[in-house]
């Protein structure tokens, strides 16, 4: 059987669409390092760059049937990496701003609360965490209590990083609504240090 020339753009696209795993291996071997260099130039973080590239390549395979004839795969891959970078940046900025707002209230929390009322507030936080929807609670505890990164959580739960980010954002939003401002601030300051106070 004649071996296909995957270096030909159209042959590679058709092979991918048909589920040819060798074509996908060729694609990753050809573009992975190049895309990582490009992603790293945007992020200045090689580990995050590799995560983005891996996500892009996984999506290419998962959505291979949508690849169109005449598409320049190289341009498509670079554009996909850039779009993934933009999505990641926007979400990180959103979470950063959300947490920043909570931390701004910490000085008044520490100054005004005595040890007993502070412990009561911590208990209230832990109770609300336990009341989160199951998926939200699982992701939130793995992040805030166990100190895992979104990437590690995604690997552990066998879900996408975007799914982890979505659950974290939902958890933060629900906790913000259910807790008073000062108590919510305590959540971000203390939760990671109070593993023994949380119920599993």
From TrEMBL:
Location of the RNA polymerase sigma-70 region domain: 28-93
A GO biological-process term: DNA-templated transcription initiation
Keywords: Sigma factor, Transcription, Transcription regulation
Residue ranges annotated for the RNA polymerase sigma factor 70 region 4 type domain, each copy included: 128-173
Domain of life: Bacteria
GO MF annotation list: DNA binding; sigma factor activity
Family label: Belongs to the sigma-70 factor family. ECF subfamily.
NCBIfam families, per database record: Sig70_bacteroi1 (TIGR02985), sigma70-ECF (TIGR02937)
Protein name: RNA polymerase sigma-70 factor
Originating organism: Flavobacterium agrisoli
């Amino acid at each position: 059987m004649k071996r296909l020339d995957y270096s030909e753009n159209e042959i590679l696209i058709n092979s991918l669409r048909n589920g040819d795993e060798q074509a996908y291996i060729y694609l990753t071997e050809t573009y992975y390092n190049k895309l990582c260099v490009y992603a790293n130039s945007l992020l200045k973080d090689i580990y995050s760059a590799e995560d983005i590239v891996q996500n892009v390549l996984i999506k290419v395979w998962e959505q291979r049937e949508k690849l169109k004839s005449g598409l320049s795969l190289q341009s498509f891959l670079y554009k996909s990496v850039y779009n993934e970078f933009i999505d990641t940046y926007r979400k990180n900025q959103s979470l950063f701003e959300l947490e920043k707002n909570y931390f701004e209230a910490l000085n008044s929390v520490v100054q005004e609360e005595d040890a007993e009322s502070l412990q009561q507030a911590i208990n209230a936080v832990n109770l609300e965490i336990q009341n989160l929807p199951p998926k939200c609670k699982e992701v939130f505890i793995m992040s805030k209590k166990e100190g895992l990164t979104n990437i590690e959580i995604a690997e552990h739960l066998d879900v996408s990083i975007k799914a982890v980010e979505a659950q974290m954002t939902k958890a933060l939003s629900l906790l913000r609504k259910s807790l008073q401002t000062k108590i919510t601030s305590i959540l971000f300051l203390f939760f990671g240090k109070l593993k023994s106070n949380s119920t599993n």
